[in-house]
Amino acid sequence: MSMQLNNVNKLPVIRALQFYKEIRLGSSLPLLVGGDDGNMYVVKLNGTGDGVISNIVEWVASKMGELLQIPILQPVFISIDAGFAAQAFDQETRELLEKSIGINLETPYLPDAVIYSERNAAGIDEFLKQQIFLFDLFLLNVDRTDMNPNMIVHHGKLWCLDYSSAVEIRTSINGAPYREHVLLKCLKRHPFYRANLAAYHFVNRLKEISDYAIHEIVDGIPAEWIGKLKMAKHETEARRALMEKLIDKKKFGVILGKRLDLLKVLKVETAEETRLRTLENKKAFEQKYGWHQ
Description:
Elements: E1 13-22, E2 31-35, E3 40-44, H1 51-67, E4 76-80, H2 91-99, E5 102-108, E6 114-115, H3 126-139, E7 151-154, E8 157-160, H4 167-174, H5 180-187, H6 200-208, H7 211-219, H8 223-226, H9 235-248, H10 253-265, H11 271-289
Parallel strand pairs: 1-4
Antiparallel strand pairs: 1-2, 2-3, 3-5, 4-5, 6-7, 7-8
Helix pairs in contact: 1-7, 7-9
């Protein structure tokens, strides 16, 4: 591989000026922040849990999705200064901000957007829905269900959010094993899953992504993020390792077809079956330990 990974793509970084509020809808505690460009953004902090890895996964998945024409709100970088935390009233938020000094990830805030539902997205065509599902299947992104769609509709246009749980990219970074059939059961609950999906159009688009496009995505990751990974001793080696793993994933056409075949035969609990199983587990716990709520 002859490409030199020198992080030459100096992408713009917005500076955080105004703290507005926490968005308490998930475990990552994103914040609503005003930038020095006059716009408002939803920020995912590096100081939360595995925030740096999550933000790298989000960055890579979002940029790959853009190349595949998936409607994803594209992330940008925001710089948080040492004194910014003082604007937050909540102690937990201040501590997270203090741990997140430097470059963090943000997406544009769309104040009049609504959470996706079949009713408010009736005009979205089926082909687009198929491509969104296939991208999630390719990434093993299990964080999209009817109860938690991670999609919004803004002026009739559908936007996908939150790819930080994309297992294929995450494991390219940390090498952690996973049980594919368990993840596929989750993906069968995806709002856009259909039993008769064909993957050839998506696979062709995937093959058309150039190696250099992958290089640019990896090259755009801030050096301070790469430095916190344990992929290699040096930044250049870590970038090269990640790039090679991502390029290899462009060959996933056969694997994607096998995943679609497996989805057809995998059995998934209905909501009622899940409810009954939860009640049975609770009852067994109470009988064993003599504890009642």
